[in-house]
# Entry
Amino acid sequence: MPLGHKWKVLVLASRWDRCYVPLYEASAGGRKVRLLKTLMTNSCRSECLYCPLRCLSAREKRAWKPDKLARVAVRLWREGTIEGVFLSSSIPRDPDSSVELELEAVRALRSMGFTGYVHLRLMPGTSRHLVREAVELADRVGVNLEAPDESLFDQICPDKGSFRTDILKRLEWAAEEARSLAQGARRRPYGACRAGLDTQVVVGVLEDNDLDFIYMTDWLFRKLNLRRVYFSPFEPVKGTPLEDRPPCPRKRVLRLYQASFLLRDYGVRAWELAELVQDGRLPDEDPKVALAKLQADRFPVNPNTADFWELVRVPGIGPSAAKEIIALRESGKTVRDFWDLAALIGRERARRAIRYLDLEYPGLGQH
# Structure
């Protein structure tokens, strides 16, 4: 089969195992990283209700040979077209054989001198020794949860294994392996899961609840130290059992992302966000602003005395801005008015923040 056609089938198919980012770009450290993102194969034995690659739906079966994929990726990397590779797969036979093909491709990449970023998606039920090797070779590793709890998972992925044993346990194994390599990770040119663990869930497949996603995300961050939870909005696909179900609103996914960042980076707890949920949904408003309204007794905050965690609760002030404000104070200066604040975080953010701050000259220049 011509390379171009295989590329089209497998790269486009990878959008169904996707992060909520453009196909060739991922976010890392505040910048965009260009990735080759593809499946090793689109042939699958599973019958997930929402997936076009399910056994009875996908028609055109294609697969990469690991060495060929490695050669293509290395060439693109040396040309500067990509900075890394994101490999996933469907499961035509068993999880170990699928992951072994991914690892074979990564071994070939590394043997060709590829020191770029590698993101590997493991399969439910992967054996411990393959999890260990994936963590050693890749910079980021993940296993898709697909759903926020066991009950929903069993409904939408009826033959994909046990939610607790085949998926959560594999994430726990990956976390343990990553911890064991953490001390020496900086001395290695690549791998050791230095970019952490992640997972993906599909939102809006059936009657799910934002509360379940919030508590699941909080547990994953606190117990397994995941770096990211990706929320994939359900999209009906012709030929699947859920083809007539309405798509998940993108705004709902946006609010779940915003809530997840509050849990990860802002010191917000799940129970606080739970107070915002009505009828199973977060409000159609930035949850940080909604929390500030609900917790009005926290404000106003004095930027010249507040600690980091008090500052990041202020709408318009994120972790970087909070650190800049603290650094300014440590240099002997203060934030006196709108313009001092705008010089640090920009006018638009300063306009959002100023109503929550106790400033010496609060009105000066804010219009």
User: Anything to note?
Assistant: Residues 3-287 form a domain with the TIM Barrel fold (CATH 3.20.20.70). The longest helix spans residues 163-181. The two ends are 63 Å apart (CA to CA).
